[in-house]
């Protein structure tokens, strides 16, 4: 009888479970260490990054999550509950969460839908509800859930199981689906998670694919190309995720600026992946540009779209609140490109979200978001030089 009751309650809970709503009405912003530190994580590093997020001004412009990636896991106890690696996290995860929370930030953690994580640590397969209970006890606010060692599993069902487990644990958690876009999560994940990866792992390269044998890592341009056509699936509380940022991890300043700008045009989660405690002034300036971030965090939550492409120059538009628009001229080539854009010859129509910019009937003020100054109006042609592997990013505001 007791066994029957337990099964009945589990089934009943699964039927009525859901994701926690309204936790990510704008794309999440934070830091995660995998791109820079890989498996070399420990509690001192996490505390150091939390301190740096505050000291650098990143917290002030919206970054809030400090996310522990793979390799924090130790062993499961006799009851199946996971414990942190005692050498890497001797104080325990709750102590880390308390420290991060004391800084006015939130803590994220990592697990995997398979029996083992990508680094062969214990995964959550078969222990989803127990792991969710632990996350709630520790005070975790964000879960990145990977897809290694999952042969034979159904992705939607696996992620639904963890979604239900998180909901049963009763602590609101942002749920990040990380199965690299292999199972088209944009088609089914809106009611499962708050963000989902759309492409393979990122690598700090502007335009390349790195072959690792059994898997590939993609450069910035390759990931941007994958996003085309997916904007219809993205919006408040359910975001396409092109992966963590590589700003500050070895590309040129121009490339970092283009990378960050395009993630904002895509309404992508802004999860920094560099060493926050050792940033150049240029890296800090890119990651904390409030005007560019405001494009990403716009309350409409509309992902931008590629309006045109010719000879390596792409023009992207993104509708913003109050009938504003963001415009990004992206130079994919290795040479500067002169642009002369005659606004009045273009009528921008976003048929997906029913937004229109008619430059014949409406004049807009133009603000350069990287130069941080107003530079004219759309009643005159726009002329500029876009450096190699760089952008010119504008905000257009209608003149009433």
**Mean pLDDT across residues:** 96
Q: What share of the residues lie within helices?
A: 25-40%
Unreliable sequence segments: 1-9
Q: What fraction of residues sit in β-strands?
A: 25-35%
Rg over CA atoms = 22 Å
Largest beta sheet, briefly?
Answer: 8 strands, parallel
- Give the strand tally: 22
Spatial gap, N to C terminus: 71 Å
Describe this structure in words.
The protein is α/β, with parallel strands linked by helices and 400 residues long. It folds into two domains: 27-296, Aldolase class I (TIM Barrel), CATH 3.20.20; 305-398, Golgi alpha-mannosidase II (Immunoglobulin-like, Sandwich). Helix content is 26%, strand content 26%. It is built from ten helices and 22 strands. An eight-stranded parallel beta sheet has the order 11-8-7-6-5-2-1-12. Strands 13-14-15-22-19-20 form a six-stranded antiparallel beta sheet, with helices on one face. Helix 3 packs parallel to helix 4 (93-102). The longest helix has 15 residues, at 2-16. It is globular and about 70 Å long. The chain starts with a helix and ends with a strand. Residues 1-9 have low confidence and may be disordered.
């Amino acid at each position: 009888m007791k066994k029957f009751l337990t099964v009945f309650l589990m089934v009943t809970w699964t039927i009525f479970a859901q994701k926690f709503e309204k936790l990510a009405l704008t794309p999440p912003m934070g830091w995660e260490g995998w791109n820079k530190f890989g498996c070399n994580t420990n509690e001192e590093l996490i505390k150091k990054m939390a301190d740096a997020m505050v000291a650098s001004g990143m917290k002030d412009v919206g970054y809030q999550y400090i996310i522990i990636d793979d390799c924090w896991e130790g062993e499961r106890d006799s009851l199946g509950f996971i414990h942190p690696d005692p050498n890497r996290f001797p104080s325990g995860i709750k102590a880390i969460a308390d420290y991060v929370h004391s800084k006015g930030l939130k803590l994220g953690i990592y697990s995997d839908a398979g029996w083992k994580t990508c680094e062969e640590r214990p995964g959550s397969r078969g222990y989803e509800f127990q792991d969710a209970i632990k996350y709630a006890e520790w005070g975790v606010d964000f879960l990145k859930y990977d897809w290694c060692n999952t042969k034979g599993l159904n992705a939607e069902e696996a992620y639904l199981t963890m979604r239900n487990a998180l909901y049963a644990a009763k602590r609101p958690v942002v749920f990040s689906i990380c199965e690299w876009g292999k199972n088209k999560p944009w088609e089914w994940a809106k009611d499962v998670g708050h963000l989902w990866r759309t492409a393979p792992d990122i690598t700090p390269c502007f335009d390349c694919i790195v072959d690792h044998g059994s898997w590939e890592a993609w450069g910035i341009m390759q990931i941007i190309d994958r996003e085309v056509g997916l904007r219809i699936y993205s919006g408040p509380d359910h975001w396409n995720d092109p992966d963590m940022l590589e700003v500050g991890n070895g590309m040129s300043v121009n490339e970092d600026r283009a990378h960050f700008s395009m993630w904002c045009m895509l309404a992508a989660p802004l999860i920094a992946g560099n060493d926050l405690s050792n940033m150049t002034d240029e890296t800090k300036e890119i990651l904390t540009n409030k005007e560019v971030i405001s494009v990403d965090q716009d309350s409409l939550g509309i992902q931008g779209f590629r309006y045109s492409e010719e000879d390596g120059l792409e023009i992207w538009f993104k509708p913003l609140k109050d009938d504003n628009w963001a415009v990004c001229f992206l130079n994919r080539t290795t040479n500067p490109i002169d642009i002369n854009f005659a606004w009045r010859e273009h009528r921008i129509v976003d048929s997906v979200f029913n937004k229109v910019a008619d430059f014949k009937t409406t004049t807009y003020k133009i603000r350069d978001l990287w130069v941080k100054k107003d530079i004219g109006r759309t009643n005159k042609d726009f002329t500029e030089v876009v450096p190699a592997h760089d952008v010119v990013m504008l905000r257009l505001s209608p003149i009433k």
